[in-house]
Amino acid sequence: MTVQHEIKSQLAKLLATEDLIVEHKQCETACFNVHTRVLTLPMWEKASNVVYDLLVGHEVGHALFTPDEDWYERKKIPPQFVNVVEDARIEKLMKRKYAGLAKTFYHGYKELHEEDFFALSDCDISNFNLADRANLYFKIGNFLDLSFTEEEKAIIRMIDGCDDFEDVLIAAEALYKFCKKKHDEDVKKPANQTENQQPSSEIVDEDAKEEVEHESDDQTEDSQEPISNDQEIHSDERDDELQVETADSLSDNIKDLINEHSSETVYLEIPKVNLDTVIASNHDVHDYIDWWWSRYDEFEPSVFEYTDTEFCKFKRNAQKEVNYLVKEFECRKAADSYARASTARTGVLDTSNLHTYKFNEDLFRKVTVLPDGKNHGLVFVLDWSGSMSQVMSDTCKQLFNLIWFCKKVNIPFEVYAFTNEWNRNHLDKNGEVVPANLIDHIERKEGLFAVDADFSLMNILSSKVSGKEMEKQMISVWRLAYAFGRSYSANFAWPDRLSLSGTPLNESLVCLHQILPKFQRDNKLQKVQCIVLTDGEANQLAQYKEIKRYWEKDGESYIGLKRIDPGNTIIRDRKLGTTYKFGYSYHEFTDVMLRNLKDKFPQVNFIGMRVLASRDVGNFMRLHNSPSDNEFTRLQKEWKKEKSFCIKNSGYDAYFGLSSIALSQDSEFEVKDDATKAQIKSAFVKSLKVKKLNKKVLGEFISLVA
Questions:
Q1: Cβ–Cβ under 8 Å, residues 620 and 545
Q2: Class of the 277-322+372-556+584-705 domain?
Q3: I want to staple 481 with a disulfide (CB 3.0 to 4.6 A). Which of 122, 392, 404, 639 is the partner?
Q4: DSSP assignment of 669-699, as one string?
Q5: How far is 466 from 633, CA to CA, in rounded Å?
């Protein structure tokens, strides 16, 4: 029923003409906090659609028109009597604001009346006090035969004429004092007096308000049990016998519409993280790596010879793909500029067109103005999890291609690798064990997604460093990737703080809410691309929850961690005024997080790159497409032909699937001197396939960037 709740939440927002925060909770009555603008609605899952709309419209009326005011200090009136009058006013104003609501209120109250929600069966309505009959008149008066004396009609007219809350208090006061007076008269009535005695003909209206007040006060003083001011408000204690019974009946019966066994919807928000504690700076990361490598340089200076040579070879071979990227980017950017070009007249005659003066009025020279291209920037999020060990080298190759492209076209970039290992126990430069420094990245509050204290984003590469330093850092990352893929055969070990860990991808997406605008602001960018390089799905985030141990009766509660139930958990973005519903699968959670990011940062393209082993291709396709869909068939054909494909219906703007085998193959056409014709042909075809894959993927990527 969460879907229905969210539909009704949207209805409430539309009726309120503001981004109210609407929550469905396991509560008995609706309430509205005027300060936080939170409208809390019970889970009326047993109500029909029209009754649900009626109840929502009624509560929105209170949210819009009922002021946050402590009126009891000025008017000692029982709340029930004020509610009767205020209900009539806000429903009148809602029907005036939205003409279509009149039909909803009519049919909704008709259904409630037919279901006897007002408890009128076997009752003589003529014996009800005026407050009850007024309540029935303004709610279900279309379906009842109600009669009023002239005195009562005057008060009904007062209620009907209320436009603001001050009018409500005046009418409620008149209503209460009239009912109080009649009640006291009935109590003092002699036993032999007939019940059908003609009621007083006195008319209570605004002009006679003071007279009614004095009469009521006098009557109260003459009664057998005088009522103190303290008793006079919160009427349950003051006048047990003077109640608006129809309001009580309606309230009690509406509670029966609540599904007590329904799971309560949980609303969670994206927390604001402390980037100073989350991000391990580029300097700190590589300072630690350099110290770790230095220990090998001292005793085994040649240990990195093979990996560094392979890096240089890859860099040389990759220049063709990089140059292709640069060419595609410049062409597309120029095409975009010309598409946005404007032409203006200079005011100087074009002599070459003078001969056309008889049929052409445009004889002036023109100038074409090309607007400046947009400033671009790229943020990379690299999966540093254990499952990446065998594909880390291939993933880094794609990453390096894009980084060299950024360097050539002067695009600023940052590369963050997510991990749970950076803050763990580790060795310092003196060989001493440094204990884990786990500091909360956010202030723990109920209603927020949790970000573990051991989570970090390592800034492994950055455009801010010099070209020489960049080369050195890329070699270090290349060494790490090599060691991960050959954990048993590598001649060196990776630094302990840079070990592969879990997959805190969703925690990284939380941090992007602050990283992206800061990156854009610091570099004065107009357009940003966010590229996520990963090999799998991530666990759903936990939530912060106030917890109190049941066995500690007097113990204080604390903010702990609790797993979420995706079926009844909603992301709420207060700034956007938007909510997002989760699915149960891990990838659906990430997709929702990405949708929220895309809505919040429409100027950012979110691109996913997934390096796939052949055995994982089918499962990855099925995450976003049913095998019976045409799109699934198209992806299969594309994979078979190109060893790559692009999914367009995920949380990413584009999600590329790339073959790990194809990426690991060398695109350089190389053969031995004594190679046969068959060997030469095979090497040539293989080289073309690899180049075709790279150009296709990188070309689609550039189309998004440019």
A1: no
A2: alpha beta
A3: 392
A4: ----TT--HHHHHHHHHHHHHHHHHHHHHHH
A5: 47
Cα distance between residue 139 and residue 677, in whole Å: 93
Amino acid at 698: L
Note the pLDDT tens digit of each residue in 421-458.
998 888 777 778 888 878 889 989 888 999 999 999 99
> Nearest-CA neighbor of 2 among 254, 256, 264, 260?
264
Q: Are 346 and 366 in contact (CB under 8 A)?
A: yes
Q: What distance separates the 2 farthest-apart alpha carbons in the chain?
A: 131
Low-confidence ranges of the chain (pLDDT < 70): 1-10, 12-14, 16-20, 34, 189-241, 262, 332-374, 488, 550-555, 662-706
Distance of CA 193 to the CA centre of its chain: 68
Which pTM does this prediction carry?
0.72
- Nearest CA to 260 among 46, 521, 12, 515? 46
pLDDT of residue 230: 34
Indicate the burial class of 52 (C-beta count within 10 angstroms; 0-12, 13-18, 19 or more): buried
Domain residue ranges in the chain: 2-264, 277-322+372-556+584-705
Strands 266-268 and 569-573: parallel
Q: How far is CA 42 from CA 18, 29, 137, 439, 565, in A?
A: 20, 6, 26, 38, 20
Q: What is the dihedral of CA 653, 657, 663, 668, to 10 degrees?
A: -60
* Cα gap 396→382, rounded to integer Å: 9
DSSP string over 388-455: GTTTHHHHHHHHHHHHHHHHHTT--EEEEEEES-TTSSEE-TTSPEEPP----SS---TTBB---TT-
- Report the pLDDT value the prediction gives residue 112, as an integer from 0 to 100: 94
pLDDT given for residue 221 in this prediction: 39
**DSSP letter at 281?**
P
Query: Quick one: pLDDT at residue 56?
Result: 85
- Counting DSSP H helices and E strands in the chain, the numbers are 21, 20
Which structure tokens are listed for 496?
A: 């302990």
End-to-end CA distance of the chain: 43
Which residue blocks in 559-629 are alpha helix, DSSP H? 586-600, 617-624
Are the C-beta atoms of 456 and 278 separated by less than 8 Å? yes
Distance separating alpha carbons of residues 477 and 457, to the nearest angstrom: 15
- In the numeric block, the tokens 């254990």 are attached to 386
Q: Answer whether 465's CB lies under 8 Å from 474's CB.
A: no
Residue 431: how many CB atoms within 10 A of its CB? 7
Provide the pairing of β-strand 279-280 with 456-462: parallel
